C-alpha cells in the first residue's frame, strides 16, 4: 500500500511539472504577448516577464515592439521627365498595437515590405530627376506618408523613410557631367569679365588722376624702372612716355618747308591770274683746271755705277 502511494505521488508531481513546463512562458522586455484561446482573442495582452497559459488551450503570439529596419530592394522606374533610374530605400517602422498586428494582417513585415516597394515605384513616376538627386527630403516625407496610411490599420507606424541611392544610366551621367562643366566655365568667364571691367574702371580713374598731376606719371615711371631693375638681369627696360610719341607724331605730320604765296598776273577773265614764281637756279661756276705736274728730274749716275747701270 505504501509503495502504491509513493508511486502515485511521483506521478502527480511529474504531471504537475510537465504541466508547469508546458504552461510557463517568458516574454522579453521588448515584446508583448497576444493570447488566443481556442482561436479567440483574449482581452488582455501579456506584459514582459514570466507568465502562464493553459497548455493545449491557449496559443501565445509574441510581437516585437522594437523599431525594425527594413531595406527596400532597388526599384527601376521612369521619372516624370522620361529618365530611367533605379532607386533603393530603407524603411524604419515599429508596432504600436500588437493586437492589430496579429489580427488584422497575416504578416505585417511582408505587408510593409510590399507597400514600400509599390510606394517607391509610384514616387519615382511622379518626380523629376532633379528632385530625386537634390530634393530628397521632400520625397522622403511623401514616401513616408504613402506607406503610413495603410500601415496604421495594421497597428504599425512608420518612423521614417530614406532614399539610399539613385542609379543613372551611363549616357545620362556623361550628359550631366558636360552640363556641369559648361556651367562652371560660364561662371568662370563671367567672373573674369567682371574682374576686367572693375580693373578698367580703376585704371581709368588712375589715368585721370595722373593727367591732372604730371609728376605722378613720372613717379610711376620711376617705380616701374625700379621694379624692373630689382630683378637679377642685365637688361634694363626704359619705357618711353606716350606724350613723347605723340609729340614726334605731330612733328612728323607738319611739312618741312612752306611754299611761298603765288604772284598775281593778268588773266583773260578779270585781268589777273596766279602764276607760281620760279626760283632761279644759281649759276654753277666751272672749277679751274688743275695745274700740270712737272716731270721728275733724272737721278744722277755715279762713275762707279756706270758698269752696272745697264744691269739696273
CA-CA gap between termini: 192 Å
Shape: rod-shaped
Encode the helix/strand succession as letters.
HEEEEEEEHHHHEHHHEEH
Main β-sheet description: 3 strands, antiparallel
Q: What is the alpha-carbon Rg in Å?
A: 58 Å
Question: How many helices?
Answer: 9
What does the model show?
This protein has 312 residues and is α+β, with helices and mostly antiparallel strands. The chain is 46% helix and 22% strand. Strands 3-2-5 form a three-stranded antiparallel beta sheet. A hairpin with a 2-residue loop joins strand 2 (31-37) and strand 3. Residues 262-288 and 294-312 have low confidence and may be disordered.
SSE topology:
Layout: H1 2-23, E1 24-27, E2 31-37, E3 40-46, E4 49-52, E5 58-64, E6 68-78, E7 84-95, H2 98-103, H3 108-126, H4 129-134, H5 136-151, E8 156-167, H6 170-212, H7 214-229, H8 242-253, E9 263-265, E10 273-275, H9 306-309
Antiparallel strand pairs: 1-4, 2-3, 2-5, 6-7, 7-8, 9-10
Helix pairs in contact: 3-5, 6-7
Quick overview of this protein structure:
This protein is α+β, with helices and mostly antiparallel strands.
Q: What labels would you give this structure?
A:
312 residues, alpha+beta, three-stranded antiparallel beta sheet, 9 helices, 10 strands, 22% strand, rod-shaped
